[in-house]
Amino acid sequence: MLQIVPTVLMQVSQQDLFKHILNDSLLGSSIYLNIALAGLTLLVLTYMARDVADPRAKLIVVSVMSVSAVSIASYTGLASGLTISIIEMPEGHALYDTATALTHSGEEVKGTVSLWGRYLTWAFSTPFILLALGLIAGSNFTKIYTAIIFDIGIMITGLAAALTTSSYSMRWVWYGISVTFFLIVVYILLFQWPEDAKEAGTENIFNLLKLLTVVLWFGYTIWWALGNEGLAIIESVGLTSWGYSAFDIVAKYLFSFLVVKYVVDNVGKVSAGTDYGATASSKPEDD
Ligand code: RET
Questions:
Q1: Strand positions, DSSP E, 111-185
Q2: pLDDT tens digits for range 233-270
Q3: Fewest beta carbons within 10 Å, which of 10, 44, 125, 218?
Q4: Nearest CA to ligand 1 atom 18
């Protein structure tokens, strides 16, 4: 007698992951929409800043534009299946022993979907958010450098938390390291840069951007703990992904818009003269 046994795939290919996302409307839309929004943001920002000539003002604009540029690459990595894996959670995790049904074939694979490319690419995009904030606050190189280094640390250790499958507690150890780095960045944002911004006369816009950043960045941190890779209170991969995508829309696109709008209207406040950043003196030599 012929028995029908559900197929359990042991291996999943990049092509499977690509098709899985394509056929999962919740998960797929959380990714595709962001590629479109990042592209649109780049066009809008380019148009808004078309007349900005001051080098320091331009640096702030280019800095926030870099966030969207990195996002296009980041989300394309996810959409193509390149930076996604199905990972088997360690014992103790709520999704231990779980299986994922591939949307395009119905086959089951042991494990849960991890969109780990997000954490990797945040290491390249979020430093530009902090660079823009530090420049608007008129902060010095040391503080900007410190914020950026610890920010990269947050994302790389966050990546480690997401990809550790050896032990459940080690996932949370990585998370703890990441949160510690995060608190250093929060300290700079809440206690160091506001003072600098007051001196620079940019405190109004800085305080708005600071609030937006701190609230949303805490959002990402809590979402990870609740989502499918953390406590799995939100088990759905699509919903977890949509949470990050929604945060991204405000933390990147609205943030960038506010920054560029301010810079365009207040070039004088962020300017440091036409020589800013020159690698050689622009004055002609005496002979
Ligand atoms: C993780 C998990 C580990 C603990 C912490 C996290 C924080 C992430 C943050 C992400 C911000 C991302 C932004 C993206 C925009 O491009 C990695 C989720 C602390 C703060 C702003």
A1: 112-114
A2: 999 999 999 999 999 999 999 999 999 999 999 999 99
A3: 10
A4: 221
Q: What gap in Å lies between CA 171 and CA 155, rounded to an integer?
A: 14
Contact yes or no for 169/182 (Cβ under 8 A): no
253 CB-near residues (< 8 Å, 6+ apart): 37, 38, 41, 68
At residue 90, the pLDDT reads 96
Q: How far is the CA of 123 from the centre of ligand 1 (A)?
A: 9
Distance of CA 77 to the CA centre of its chain: 13
Q: Which residues of the chain carry a pLDDT beneath 70?
A: 1-10, 282-287
Which ligand 1 atom sits nearest the alpha carbon of residue 159? 17
0.70 exceeded by pTM: yes
Predicted pLDDT at 280: 87
Q: Is 284 helix (H, G, I), strand (E, B) or coil?
A: coil
Tokens (6 digits) for 48: 């808004």
